[in-house]
Amino acid sequence: MRIAIADDHPMMRGALIMAAASCFGPAEFLESSSISELLAQLREAGTVDLVLLDLQMPGTDGFEGVCAVRANFPGLPVVVTSADDDPRLVFEALSFGAAGFIGKSTPRHEVVRALRQVAAGGVYAPVSLDRAAPQKSSAEIEFFQRVATLTPQQRRVLELLVTGKLNKEIAFELDIAETTVKAHVSSVLHKLKVYSRTQAVIMAQPLQLRANAAHPAHL
Length: 219
What we know:
The protein is an alpha/beta fold and 219 residues long. Helices cover 51% and strands 11% of the residues. The protein folds into two domains: 2-133, Rossmann fold (3-Layer(aba) Sandwich), CATH 3.40.50.2300; 150-207, Orthogonal Bundle (Arc Repressor Mutant, subunit A). Strand 1, helix 1 and strand 2 form a beta-alpha-beta unit. The longest helix is centred in the N-terminal third of the chain and has 15 residues, at 10-24. The two termini are 25 Å apart. The relative contact order is 0.12.
């Protein structure tokens, strides 16, 4: 197997490598400490079987890393790792297309079980998810899933829409033509199945999307 592990803490990468090695036996591991490095490795590698992705990666907010990998490599299973295993966070990670969620305090034997479950084509979530599910309506779940289908650039446009920026301001922020922004907005509305910018903003606000000009637009 070829497994990509993205975490800015070397010790955490080492722990995940040990768990994965005990689960799958001999494997090739691609290590990265940022989303941009991870995406570059995935493009160069060609074939990767699994990604273990730290939720709090440098240069990203929230689920941007998950969305970037899912947008560029839609068939690649992504398991989110995080020091925060709040049930709501777990639920949203899965809603954005993650194939699993592993808290960093999870015992090694449970990490192995999670990896095997995902490698077999399943979805892994800790028991704590059961407490989160009732907090989300089916409409919210569906909207989360639609947001996960946006390309990285479309997601950036949505983030900036949520902050109240106009097309010309978004064009300046992303250094693209205003006509390109209009095309992105149209695609966003279509993918989210909403009829106006206002409706998209209202529905996206609970996601707490954060627009940051320092984020690479190509992610």
